[in-house]
Amino acid sequence: MTPVLLQLLQLLLVVTAAPLVTGWVRLVKARLQARRGPPLLQPYRDLYRLLQKEAIVAPSASWVFRAAPYLTFSAIWLAAMIIPTFSIDLYLIPAADLIALVALLGLARFATALAGMDIGTAFGGLGASREMLIASLAEPAMLMVTFTLSLLSGSTSPAIVAEFVLHGGIGLSVSAGLALVAMILVAIAENGRIPIDNPATHLELTMVHEAMVLEYSGRHLAMMEAAGMVRLTLYIGLIGCLFLPWGIALPGASGLELAGGLAMWAVRTLALSTALAVFETSIAKMRVFRYGDFLGGALLLGLLAAIFHYVSEAV
Amino acid sequence: MVIAAALGALLALFPLAAIFSRRPGVHAAVHAACLLACLTLLAAGLAHLSAPGGADQTLILPIGLPWMSAHFRLDSLSALFVVLINLGGAAASAYGIGYASHLPSPKRATPFVPLFLFGMNMVLLSDDAFVFLVSWEFMSLASWALVLADYTRAENRRAGAVYIVMAVFGTFCLLSCFGTMVGPEGDYSFAAMRAHPLAPTAAFLCVLLAVAGTGSKAGMVPLHAWLPLAHPAAPSHVSALMSGVMTKVALYAMIRILLDLRAGVPWQWGAALMVLGAVTAVLGILYAVLEDDLKTLLAYSTVENVGVALIGIGLAVAFRDNGEARLATVALVAALYHMFNHSIFKSLLFLGTGAVLSATGERRLSALGGLLNRMPWTGALMLIGAASISALPPFNGFVSEWLTFQILLKGPSVPHWAMKFEAPVVGALLALAAALAAACFVRVFGVAFLGRPRTAEAAAATEVGWWMRAPMLVLGGLCVILGAVPVSLSQALSVALAPLTGATVVMSADLGWPWLSPAGAFRGSYSGTVLALAGLALFGITILLVHRFGTTRTRRAPAWDCGHAEDIVNAQYSGQSFSEPLARVFASTIFGASETVEMPEPGDMGTATHTARKTDPIWVGLYQSMVGWSIGSPIMSTSCSSCRCAAIC
Predict the structure, then answer these.
(1) Could you state, in order of their start, the residue ranges of all structural domains in chain B?
(2) pTM of this prediction?
């Protein structure tokens, strides 16, 4: 019974905490830029406000446009359910491993990109085309990270990797370090953060994700925004679970250990989201055709991580 | 017996159809008969697979070469492929019943369809080299005739010329391959070949010729260039057969020779096949993502999928040589699962393209758009096909992609440095191919079915009839079922493939029924069933909550488009503009993709021109010398447009 309960708790946790994480990143960024910034809880209010507004749909739109926000959101929510945050004893853990996780996020992206093309405007297509370019570079890099972790721990399941790390199975390893860097680069790209994309822009030529959801309004926009927030929380949770899993409760943990796991997750999330805000403030956005350098670097790091593993094994 | 009757009927249909080809209704009648024959063969294949401990059925007929009889055999491998071939065959035949009126000259195509199906089935059932090669030629020549069904178009005649040269090349390789394996006293039966040990040189030549012969038919790079010319030239349901089904017959021949007729193919061949497969996958999908013609695009994507299957076959060869029977089984299950998936979704996509072609008369992406609103059935089914081929869960393409990745992760268990370094590189290329496939099919669906219609034909499209919709519905349903219930099929494959590798693997051993987690192969699991159910539940909950706590009011109003909203249809993104960044990042080196824009001088009223061109290095390097006489220019495609470009701020 416990795994089912923990699974439900995780389900609620990721979706309720996600706007808070986004609010925190925005707040820290504003303070670093010497602005007051919006209140911490502003994202909740924004989502509520959007839900109350009527949705406007262009005449040429098909059902894909209307279904895509819900599909995107639920695919990302499903993916977030499977990443351990405070406990690895989740009921659905065996349903998907890291490869399936990448594919679930791919499903969300597929839906969003199609929605971007549904209205038949230049911006929607521009966003969809660039998003798929980014994905075609980021997915192989993510798979290389998975490859390395699986070589180190013997499994592609995030729970088994976390357990392995917790038991000191990896320790200080060059491969894991390179994989971590590659993973961070992929996470930045996949979440549309600076330097790949600017989540705050509405300057036409620099938009990627915003260009795809440009035509959305009301509840549809709320779902797309919420999906982005859950995705950010998901990636922060994923990096935490794979590389810094300390505090995550193991199967059969007591209530106190679970509370500790929750506290450690909050600390990790706070630290990683603050780091994201600092990083975003200190760097400028890239030109579109330099994405290849950025994500190609991630791919090479992932590949090097795998190869270093063999070298260190042979020594 | 049933099988013989069905095959006999297919063969008999050829002269009958040819004689009565001028009668009205003969086209539909022939396809209906093909449908019945395919369903019979499908049932026979399933019956053989489900029979407990089913013994091989053999048949020896006193025909063929004077000193030997013709041998036929149905074992579990050929039964698997009989099921695969006839599933695609049945769908294409049923579709053909409704597709008749759209063909320019049905009488040139109709008689060859049953002959084509006959040839493919006979390849699977043959048990000696002579019957095999004769059937192989039936398959090649019937499909060649189908490529030339619309011979009035110059590009089809060129496709036919290239195809016949490559078919001759492939058969020549296979003929020589069987020549190296021939048993004592010229015994060409497969049983004698299995028992006959080969000297190292002969063994090497044999495998090389087998890979070249079967690979050229399957579309393996660098022997692929005929495929995207020939497959689209045939009528759409035949394109589905050629792309979805005939390439599988070629892969069957490869598996039969490498893993059955030859006992110990060294692991280096497996490693080589993996590299060839990875290169094939990436190049195939790169061609596809840059292509404007829908059918050519699908043919290139076939090249990609053949590459993915080759990776699985290569891994199986390497594992088996290394004594890892269980891993070899899982690798082969991954390859076979992918072949099943590909034959299903590629047939679906080709049939959907046929529907678009018959509704609009167009197969260029640049002339379509907004079809989902006008063809809701075809559109929704094409979306399922696009999601499946892009390897998205919970559809079927993801299951085989997942299995291939997982088993590739075990590649380093072959204790050679080459394998250790190769596995991650092949994995990265496979991931690249999968991501590009998603980009490619977002482009296909987004440009053809979403957005606003680009031509009057696209705006006037209407949904196709039920005879064409029904087979697409069945195939779309199979995409969902094979994706949502991955354990059952992979278990059946594992049992059927065990004789080749020597080990059966329980595909859900660690966790029980709906969880795909092959025993003793790797630690990792996937459950399409659970994911699909949980995803549906979350999807429903999301909609309920949003509608409960938000408003459900919706208003139709013109698009916002950042304030630039204009009524120019060509201002929306086209297929070419979608693939431009991908071309710039990936194809500028490989294909020499380049663009030039010529603007008139200020004050000059002339039109601006935009030229995009790309070259195929393999075509220039390899094919120009072989078939250059039939095709002149090395430029793969050039498109010129003089346009009033919609400037974006």
Answers:
(1) 266-545, 591-642
(2) 0.94
